[in-house]
Design brief:
Blueprint: E1 2-3, H1 10-22, E2 31-36, H2 45-52, E3 62-66, H3 75-86
Parallel strand pairs: 1-2, 2-3
Amino acid sequence: MVDSRDRSRMSEARHELHCLVADLDLTNIPILILANKQDLPSMSVHEVAYALRLRHIRDRDWCIKWCSIIHRAGLYDGLDWLSNLLS
């Protein structure tokens, strides 16, 4: 989960994500990114995807979905994607 409002921490999130992608123990594990706080003025899902450089991840399935945890919105779209992928 990424805080879509916090632009200052996107580079840190990108670094951590790409460290996980480089971990050989996690090869072929799908990645679900939830762009949280979409109910507030924040980066769009496309902006978050760009900031995280998701297009560079080519060795596994990944998906980015918007959500607002406080309003319980969007979370299940991402979980449905993951569930369908794993079934």
